Amino acid sequence: MFNALIRRSKALSFASDTAMYYIIVPLSVLLMFLARNIIRTRTGRAFISVRDNDLAAELLGINVFTYKLRAFFLSAVYAGIAGCLLAYERNSLSLNAFELDTSIEMLAMLIIGGAGYPLGALFGVAFIRVLQEAFIPFLRPWLSDWLPQLFPFVDAVNITSAINPIVFGGALIIFLVLEPRGIAHRWEVFKVAWKIRPYAY
């Protein structure tokens, strides 16, 4: 029986993107479920209190240092799981995989999605992917014609190569000004408004 289990485990292969999909998606759903339930606990409420105003939290009797340490530990666990999946998917890890552009992109996903909300990461990744793969290619021909006329003192080749960072930075600035708490916060507000919609006034 043990030999049969070994042979069956050897038959399983996770070398394709499809197979990795069946590992990453269920694990992501599980981790998001756990994060959402952590928020409902005493520890989660302390996290929110420390995040919003650590001085007020300390005056309420919350040990700020302890809960900051716990938050660091939980974030390290989540980052470690993500790093393990990345290493397994790429079969290697190097410093080239963590350049400054990648860090800025991930930070933008967090800001746009909504920091402090379990669904924030999902909303942020979805928005950035749609922006990069659909919205920017749609705007590129129009911006390639219009921006050189707006900035005649800049070489057209440089403007064309800078379209992606320009649109990306513009979207980030818009969210920082108009919706600093992210899409997830707006989603929570929408859900509450939908529940009380006959009496929304």
Which descriptors apply to this entry?
201 residues, mainly alpha, 2 domains, globular
Radius of gyration: 22 Å
Low-confidence stretches: none
Specify the overall morphology: globular
Query: How many DSSP-defined strands?
Result: 0
How much strand? under 5%
Question: How many angstroms separate the termini?
Answer: 67 Å
Number of helices: 10
Order of helices and strands: HHHHHHHHHH
Look at the structure and give the mean pLDDT.
Answer: 82
Largest sheet: none
Q: How many individual domains?
A: 2
> How much helix is in the residues?
over 70%
Structural class: mainly alpha
Describe the model.
With 201 residues, the protein is mainly alpha-helical. The protein folds into two domains: 1-94; 99-201, no CATH class. The protein has ten helices and no strands. The longest helix is centred in the C-terminal third of the chain and has 31 residues, at 120-150.
Outline of the structure:
The protein is mostly helical and 201 residues long. It has helices spanning 2-11, 17-39, 42-52, 54-59, 64-90, 100-113, 120-150, 156-161, 163-178, 182-195.
Topology (elements, then pairings):
Blueprint: H1 2-11, H2 17-39, H3 42-52, H4 54-59, H5 64-90, H6 100-113, H7 120-150, H8 156-161, H9 163-178, H10 182-195
Helix pairs in contact: 3-5, 6-7, 6-10, 7-9
